[in-house]
């Protein structure tokens, strides 16, 4: 009820009757009215229009004699007016009825503006009295009008007619007329105005439905949980994984030969009394220190699992982990988010039942016998894999190690010393040891005291070098297959080691050996010539890709995965000039012809960067064919600036370079000099797009995965493997291939002896931090890269300079010669002649005849080099350079034994690509010259 209605409550209690006076008393009897016994039956008086209240025929009543006091009243005849209330006698005789005292203005209830406006708009109809309620056919009586000579104040209606605001009488609220509220025109739309705020009105209307809804949902939720708990399988009824024969996952080569294996065919369960307390305490300290006091679930961890879809670990209790790993029904592959939530719910229900039916010791026993530890499934296999001993023989430090690796078994199974995984493992082990101290503080029978914990030393696990499944290149295959099963098939570690899958790969077993032999041949050559071994920090990478399918056919990552986890599939270094083909493809895609002219002289300043060519050679006006063949830095930086660096990055991305690598590159014109870091796999996949007529095929290692039930699993990129993606047109690929064919001259170290068509590009980063050769024939692409694990300049004994055209080219040739032996010599498409010729070369201006010392030869022949390992330089001039000005000139630098980094100071600048192997900064030799380097050996 609104405030206005509440104020008018008093007036609704009055009877409906005519207004007797100026105040409108609504038919109430006056104070001087007749006595109770003389009243008629509360009937209404007749209207004035019918002859007044008492017409001329009414008998007159005489006054009582004065000497007798007041004569007794006698009943007088009255007309039958029904139930109408009668007027007071004083009013009948024309006397004015006493009025109630009027309240002060501040206390008098006022009628709202809306009500007053409604009364004015509704006209005479709103002022008429209601029809008699006791007769449906009774017409409404007209209002009694006051004669003009009446001097009394007008009522509410008269004041309203005069434009004044009516004053309500006492006890009548804001309406002032008494009786029920008359219906106005606005009442059809809104019977009652509610002056409460919107929030209160909203909750007044919704709290009941909301309460009912919450109650129904609560009842349904409780019923659902009860039904789910009742339907959840009992631990006693379910087939446990311990009763199922484990099957290791077998990985095969392309021809079907065994490559490696994940997991073991059998599990060795151990009883609770065979597991020492040192191992139990280590696991509890790492996973759940309050295991013996807690319940079956961790609500916080469950909520995190629901929000992140299980991607955020560390929230499950040991009971939940045991239920998930122990029962076969919970380890089925359920990749969707909905199925993951269902699995989590089932896990919770089973955990409750496990907690009720099994003791804490039984739960921890089953947990340790089923969990994956990185080097085996179960605690007994882990003890033998990491320390070569029975689980009962593990001490406190080793028990803490066993508990530590549970969190990241894949990363901590074989961490390399000094790697981030090794650092993380040692930090986690320290956390576990701290947990042992905390356990001891809560329960003196568990854990270690602070003094005992301080005496512990980190236990070094056994090397995997003697493991047949991990030694040599087989460990690299394991890591590569593991990553791809995770990214393309969504495999977990538990599925991998016990699922019994058959994984077929595209790797050619013979080609894997060829890659290893090619690297070893060059290592032996260096050692024979110099009598020194190549520094162990030097990393060699080879990857071969089938352009038509994107399949990885072979790779080399290192001598032994057990001792060196780095490999060519993941390790990256700056691309150098081997990135220039992507600049060329971007230009051809913008209709820039190979015949377009550019400035081949240096130094060239673009975008605040000054670029020189290798050995400060000036080539004059050059086209893109010569720019590619001689790897001219100035023309390619000018080209990258013209087509925009963003276009170059888009082309590289379309060709197959990962987006995350491009995001870290400098987006400037010097992108042409290879500031992007790439792996051998990245480059082999990118160049395969040129060999495949511009179609980029997703690179992949796994060709088929078959489950133990014989069902073939589909990868998440199956649709892309069918047709690939058109990165650029076949005509662009043909012209780019034509330009890269000119790189492989007759005396190039990568030239194949059988003379088959081939194309490729060399690359060396600034200060010779990395060296590349990437080449291809129509049916196979291979990339070879050298770099150091510490990102320092390459140092090869007996080599004064390091180019992509030297050792990387020799390794490429050795591998490709063996891999292509007996295969068909396929031809590249002819040059398509894409685009229009543009001329960005500067207009030559007349200059004085330069002296011989100022005119370097455009491209010195390698045969003029006195030593095969030396890179030829322009003929020296009679007059040496002015070293006070040209301090970056190589002739101004003193010899330094510091390797290819060079000896003298270099002005600071952005890193580029340098091919002369003499060091220097961006003002000296930013970028690469990429010449053949030395004569064929």
TrEMBL record:
Q: Which reaction does it catalyse?
A: [GlcNAc-(1->4)-Mur2Ac(oyl-L-Ala-gamma-D-Glu-L-Lys-D-Ala-D-Ala)](n)-di-trans,octa-cis-undecaprenyl diphosphate + beta-D-GlcNAc-(1->4)-Mur2Ac(oyl-L-Ala-gamma-D-Glu-L-Lys-D-Ala-D-Ala)-di-trans,octa-cis-undecaprenyl diphosphate = [GlcNAc-(1->4)-Mur2Ac(oyl-L-Ala-gamma-D-Glu-L-Lys-D-Ala-D-Ala)](n+1)-di-trans,octa-cis-undecaprenyl diphosphate + di-trans,octa-cis-undecaprenyl diphosphate + H(+); Preferential cleavage: (Ac)2-L-Lys-D-Ala-|-D-Ala. Also transpeptidation of peptidyl-alanyl moieties that are N-acyl substituents of D-alanine
Q: Which organism is it from?
A: Nocardiopsis ansamitocini
Region of interest called Disordered, as start-end residue ranges on this chain: 1-197, 836-937
Acidic residues composition bias: residue spans: 875-885
Alphabetized, the UniProt keywords read:
Carboxypeptidase, Glycosyltransferase, Hydrolase, Membrane, Multifunctional enzyme, Protease, Transferase, Transmembrane, Transmembrane helix
Membrane-spanning regions, if any? Answer: 210-232
Q: Which GO terms describe its biological process?
A: peptidoglycan biosynthetic process; proteolysis
The residues covered by the Penicillin-binding protein transpeptidase domain are 542-779
Q: Which InterPro entries match?
A: Beta-lactam/transpept-like, Glyco_trans_51, Glycosyltr_51/Transpeptidase, Lysozyme-like_dom_sf, PBP_transglycosylase, PCN-bd_Tpept
Q: Indicate, by first and last residue, each region the UniProt record lists as having compositional bias (Basic and acidic residues).
A: 1-23, 34-60, 67-86, 96-109, 126-135, 147-156
Every Glycosyl transferase family domain range: 261-414
> Which GO molecular function annotation, any one, does this entry have?
penicillin binding
Q: What is this protein called?
A: Penicillin-insensitive transglycosylase
């Amino acid at each position: 009820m609104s405030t206005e209605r509440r104020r008018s409550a008093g007036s609704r209690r009055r009877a409906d009757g005519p207004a007797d006076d100026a105040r409108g008393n609504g038919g109430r009897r006056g104070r001087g009215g007749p006595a109770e016994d003389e009243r008629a039956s509360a009937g209404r008086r007749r209207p004035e229009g019918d002859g007044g209240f008492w017409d001329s025929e009414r008998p007159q009543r005489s006054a009582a004699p004065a000497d007798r006091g007041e004569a007794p009243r006698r009943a007088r005849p009255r007309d039958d007016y029904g139930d109408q209330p009668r007027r007071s006698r004083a009013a009948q005789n024309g006397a004015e009825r006493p009025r109630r005292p009027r309240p002060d203005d501040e206390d008098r209830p006022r009628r709202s503006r809306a009500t007053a406006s409604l009364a004015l708009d509704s006209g005479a109809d709103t002022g008429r009295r209601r029809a008699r309620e006791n007769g449906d056919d009774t017409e409404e009586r007209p209002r009694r009008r006051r004669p003009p000579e009446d001097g009394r104040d007008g009522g509410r209606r008269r004041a309203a007619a005069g434009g004044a605001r009516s004053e309500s009488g006492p006890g009548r609220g804001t309406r002032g007329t008494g009786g029920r509220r008359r219906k106005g025109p606005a009442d059809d739309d809104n019977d009652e105005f509610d002056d409460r705020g919107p929030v209160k009105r909203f909750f007044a209307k919704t709290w009941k439905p909301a309460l009912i809804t919450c109650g129904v949902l609560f009842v349904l939720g409780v019923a659902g949980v009860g039904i789910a708990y009742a339907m959840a399988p009992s631990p006693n009824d379910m087939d446990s994984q311990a009763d199922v024969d484990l099957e290791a996952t077998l990985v095969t080569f392309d021809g079907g030969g065994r490559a490696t294996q994940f997991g073991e065919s059998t599990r060795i369960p151990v009883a609770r009394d065979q597991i020492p307390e040192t191992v139990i305490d280590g696991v509890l300290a790492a996973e759940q220190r309050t295991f013996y006091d807690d319940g079956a679930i961790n609500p916080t961890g469950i909520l995190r699992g629901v929000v992140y879809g299980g991607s955020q670990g560390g929230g499950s209790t040991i009971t939940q982990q045991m239920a998930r790993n122990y029962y076969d029904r919970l380890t089925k592959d359920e990749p969707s988010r909905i199925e993951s939530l269902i699995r989590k719910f089932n896990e919770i229900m089973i955990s409750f039942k496990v907690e009720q039916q099994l003791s804490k010791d039984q739960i921890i026993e089953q947990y340790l016998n089923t969990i994956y530890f990185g080097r085996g499934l179960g605690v007994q296999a882990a003890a033998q894999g990491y320390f070569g001993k029975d689980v009962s023989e593990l001490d406190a430090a080793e028990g803490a190690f066993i508990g530590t690796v549970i969190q990241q078994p894949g990363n901590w199974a074989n961490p390399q010393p000094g790697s981030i995984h090794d650092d993380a493992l040692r930090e986690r082990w320290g956390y576990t040891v701290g947990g042992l101290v905390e356990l001891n503080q809560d329960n003196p029978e568990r854990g270690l005291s602070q003094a005992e914990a301080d005496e512990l030393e980190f236990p070094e696990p056994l090397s995997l070098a003697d493991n047949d499944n991990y030694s040599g290149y087989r460990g690299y295959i394991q890591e590569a297959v593991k990553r791809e099963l995770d990214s393309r098939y969504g495999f977990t570690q538990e599925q991998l080691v016990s699922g019994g899958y058959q994984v077929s790969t595209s790797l050619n077993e013979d080609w894997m050996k060829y890659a290893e032999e090619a690297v070893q041949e060059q290592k032996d050559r260096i050692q024979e010539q110099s009598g020194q071994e190549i520094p162990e920090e030097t990393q060699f990478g080879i990857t071969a890709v089938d352009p038509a399918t994107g399949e990885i056919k072979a790779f080399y990552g290192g001598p032994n995965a057990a001792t060196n986890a780095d490999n060519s599939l993941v390790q990256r270094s700056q691309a150098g000039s081997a990135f220039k083909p992507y600049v060329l493809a971007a230009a051809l895609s913008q209709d820039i012809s190979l015949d377009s002219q550019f400035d081949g002289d240096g130094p060239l300043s673009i975008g605040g960067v000054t670029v020189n060519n290798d050995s400060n050679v000036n080539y004059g006006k050059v086209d893109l064919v010569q720019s590619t063949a001689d790897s001219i830095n100035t023309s390619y930086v000018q080209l990258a600036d013209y087509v925009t660096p963003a276009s170059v990055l888009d082309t590289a991305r379309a060709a197959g370079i990962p987006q995350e690598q491009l995001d870290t590159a400098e987006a400037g014109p010097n992108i042409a000099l290879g500031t992007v870091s790439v792996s051998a796999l990245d480059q082999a996949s990118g160049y395969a797009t040129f060999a495949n007529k511009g179609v980029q095929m997703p690179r992949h290692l796994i060709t088929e995965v078959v489950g133990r039930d014989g069902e073939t699993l589909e990868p998440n990129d199956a649709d892309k493997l069918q047709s690939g993606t058109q990165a650029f047109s076949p005509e662009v690929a043909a012209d780019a291939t034509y330009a890269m064919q000119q790189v492989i001259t007759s005396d190039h170290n990568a030239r194949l002896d059988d003379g088959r068509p081939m194309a490729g590009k060399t690359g060396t980063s600034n200060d010779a931090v990395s060296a590349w050769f990437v080449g291809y024939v129509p049916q196979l692409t291979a990339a070879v890269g050298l770099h150091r694990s510490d990102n320092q300049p390459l140092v090869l004994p007996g080599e004064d300079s390091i180019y992509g055209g030297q050792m990387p080219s020799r390794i490429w040739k050795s591998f490709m010669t063996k891999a292509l032996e007996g295969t068909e010599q396929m031809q590249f498409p002819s040059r398509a002649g894409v685009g229009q010729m543009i001329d960005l070369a500067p207009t030559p201006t007349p200059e004085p005849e330069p002296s011989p010392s100022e005119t370097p030869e455009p491209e010195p022949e390698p045969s003029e080099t006195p030593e095969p390992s030396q890179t030829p330089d322009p003929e020296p001039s009679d007059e040496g350079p002015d070293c006070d000005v040209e301090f970056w000139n190589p002739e101004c630098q003193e010899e330094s034994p510091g390797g290819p980094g060079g000896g003298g100071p270099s002005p600071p600048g952005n890193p580029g690509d340098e091919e002369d192997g003499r060091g220097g900064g961006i003002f000296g030799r930013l970028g690469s010259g990429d010449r053949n380097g030395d004569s064929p050996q």
